[in-house]
Structure formats: structure tokens, C-alpha cells
Amino acid sequence: MKRCSTCNRTYTDPNLSFCIDDGTPLTTVAPDDETTVVKPRGNEDEWNAVAYRPPTPYAPPGAQAKPRRRVWPWVVGIAGAFVLGLLAISVAALIMAPRLRARQDQRTVAPIHDPSNSNSVPANINANSNSTGSVNTPPPSNQEQVLAHLKNLENDWMVANINADKKKLDLILADDYVGQSGPEGGLETKAEYLKRTERDDQIQKWEMSEEKLTLTGDRATLAGIVTFFLRDGRVGSFDFKDKFVWREGRWQATGSELTARKPPVGTNL
Question: Taking the model in full, what pTM does it have?
């Protein structure tokens, strides 16, 4: 093996005597003398290391990168849809509120109870159907509905008197109630009314007739005739006039008057 002393290139052809690159005479070297020649690095300033760059995705020629989608149009669109939804709900509420109020007034009218079809006094009464109404509910203005409801309330009032149900009477009577204590009695307050009320086992049934309603805003007056049938066969009729006020979402009695009518011939009460 021969080596060029100038460029350190080695040759295995034994016929070569000069380096084919620079023409320097070749020197023969033993195989054991072959060493790796490392060229020393020159000045430190000559080292220009290239910073590492991550690989970039390949884009074919002529292709353009897709632009990033903007987020703000979506945000504005969602916010606009939300505002429109609120406006739609508000308009629907304004339209449906009167209809719902009218339905509520219809539901507050309880069915008329006809005690004449019963041979005995019921043990329990229905609570004022407006007792669960809203405090801000306006008074009903339908004449027929108010008349039907007050007739039912009068029957509830009568049953509460007979059973001495003071809890029911407390709901029916307003706190400022002032009424007649009897056909010939004086005036009494709500507290006095509840105190004197005792259970009455003599009344078997009663009938109300010729009811007339006077309705003015949140005030109502119901007048008519009530006839009592006692268990011993006696019958008595009275003219009544009861006054009511619409308060706390229900009708409450504020006063009552009772006047005895002339009994039929052959009867005594």
C-alpha cells in the first residue's frame, strides 16, 4: 500500500509511483501503520453550526395554506340568537298572560253545591277555592262566575257553622269582619263570632234561593233567601245579605245580615 504525503490519499496499485491528484511521490507504508487521519479544526470562528429546525409539513407546489377561521363571528352569532330568543319568550309571555289569567279565574269557580238533594249535613266542607291564589291576583269580573263561587262559599260557610269548624270559619271571615249575631242580635267581630260558634245538630238541610249579586271591583254583596229544615220537622226562612271583599287572592266575608221571614202557615221555627 502506498500513500501520498501531501493529501494522505492511499493507493493499493503497486504500479503507481506518484499521486494522481497532486503528483507527489508515493511512499510505501506497512498495513499495520495505517491510521485514521483526522484533520484538525481551524479557528473557532470557522465553526458555523446550523440551529436545529423542526421539519415542516410538505406543501405541494402551487398549494396555499388554509387561512385560520375567525372565532368572533361565531360568538356574535350565538349572542344574537340568545337575545332574539329572550325577546321571543318575552313577547309570548305578554300574549299568553291574559289568557292564563282568564283560565285561572275560570278554575277558581267551584261547582255549585245543592244541599237540597242531600238528606243530611255533610261532615266536611270545601276550602275556599281561591285560598291558594296569588296575593296580586286581580278580582274576577265575570258576574256569573263570581255568583257561582259565592253561592258555593255560602254553603261552605253554613256547613262550617253547623260543624263549629272554626279553622274553616277563620279562612272564610275577613279579619275586619263585623256582622249580625242572629236574626235579632247585635253586631259582633270575627273573634266574638268564632268564640260563640257551637255545633248545631238540629239542622238537617237548607236551601238557598233568589240569590242576587252586586259586584263592584273587589267588593261583592250577595243577597237572597235561606230556608232551614230541622230534624224535628220545623222549617224557617230568612232573608240574608252577606258582604265580601277580594283579598289575598280569594273572597272573604266582611259582614252579614239575617232577617226572619214570616213562616208558612202551620209551621213554627
Answer: 0.49
SS3 172: helix
Please check whether residue 88 lies inside any domain of the structure.
no
Does residue 224 sit within a domain?
yes
Residues 34 and 136 in one domain: no
pLDDT at 172: 94
The upper half-sphere exposure of residue 134, i.e. CA atoms within 13 Å in the direction of its Cβ, equals 8
Long-range interactions of 4-9: CB distance < 8 A, separation 24+: 8/37
Each residue of 202-229: pLDDT tens digit? 888 888 899 999 999 999 999 999 998 9
CB 137 within 8 A of CB 207: no
Residues 6+ apart with CB under 8 A from 244: 150, 153, 219, 220, 221, 222, 251, 252, 253, 254
Range of the domain at 23: 1-38
Domain count, the chain: 2
Distance of CA 37 to the CA centre of its chain: 90
65 within a domain of the structure (yes/no): no
